[in-house]
Amino acid sequence: MAKSRKRSASSKSGPSAKRVTPSTRSSAMHREKRFPMDKIHELLERKFPSGNVKAEAAVFLTAVLEYLAIEILELSTNVARSRSGGKDGVKVTLQDMLQAIEADAETKELIDKVRQANASAK
């Protein structure tokens, strides 16, 4: 018995039609979870109203924020897995994130510097 394949919303049919595969589904889900570069650009323009904020600045800041978020999430997931005994489908809690940040020297140093900068800006 042949398995039926899901097709994308494309109106094409035949060999050139795109098919939804686990890898395309995964990449589509990944794209949905990206940081909103347009919103970050707007925030930068609001923060620095006197000068032009180039689009490249928003691209760079977005990439940095995505990288940091992924790093913290990976560290937190490791803490959650060790807490739950290595089960699949663990739930990452705020406590897991805080513990992960405290356990990683580089991340802790970065967060401490951000906290100090925010405290002195007030």
UniProtKB/TrEMBL annotation:
Q: State the oligomer form and interacting partners.
A: The nucleosome is a histone octamer containing two molecules each of H2A, H2B, H3 and H4 assembled in one H3-H4 heterotetramer and two H2A-H2B heterodimers. The octamer wraps approximately 147 bp of DNA.
Q: Where is the composition biased (Low complexity)?
A: 10-19
UniProt region (Disordered), positions on chain: 1-35
Alphabetical UniProt keywords: Chromosome, DNA-binding, Nucleosome core, Nucleus
* Chief place of localization: nucleus
SUPFAM superfamilies named in the record: Histone-fold
Q: Which family, according to UniProt?
A: Belongs to the histone H2A family.
**Location in the cell:** Nucleus
The name under which this protein is listed is Histone H2A
User: GO cellular-component terms in the record?
Assistant: nucleosome; nucleus
GO function terms (MF aspect): DNA binding; protein heterodimerization activity; structural constituent of chromatin
Kindly give the Gene3D superfamilies that the UniProt entry links to this protein. Histone, subunit A
